[in-house]
Design goal:
The chain is mainly alpha-helical. It has one domain (14-85). 80% of the residues lie in helices and 0% in strands. It is built from four helices and no strands. It has helices at 7-11, 14-37, 40-66, 73-85. Helix 2 packs antiparallel against helix 3 (40-66). The chain starts with 6 loop residues before the first helix and ends with a helix.
């Protein structure tokens, strides 16, 4: 009996890419609309915040998911980064 491919294999397949592209297109369209309707500073702030959040999510996923480590100290660095931006 053949087992199903793992989640990592399915997420990098062409089917996952085809599903993801319309979502990326809609997000890009909404950011462009925000730039024209409100201001480009607001649109770039939203884009920057989303990219920073994605990088943080990838880091936590790598640490907690693949490595299996539970480190509460990482939230302290997140809090310091949030405090530094204020």
């Amino acid at each position: 009996m053949k087992s199903a491919p793992s989640l990592a294999c399915r997420s990098t397949s062409a089917g996952g890419f085809i599903v993801l592209m319309p979502v990326v297109g809609w997000v890009a369209l909404l950011i462009v609309i925000t730039g024209f309707v409100q201001s480009w500073n607001t649109a770039l702030f939203i884009l920057n915040f989303g990219l920073i959040s994605a990088i943080m999510a990838l880091g936590v996923n790598l640490q907690w998911g693949f490595a299996g480590l539970f480190n509460v100290g990482i939230m302290g660095f997140v809090a310091l980064g949030g405090l530094a931006t204020v």
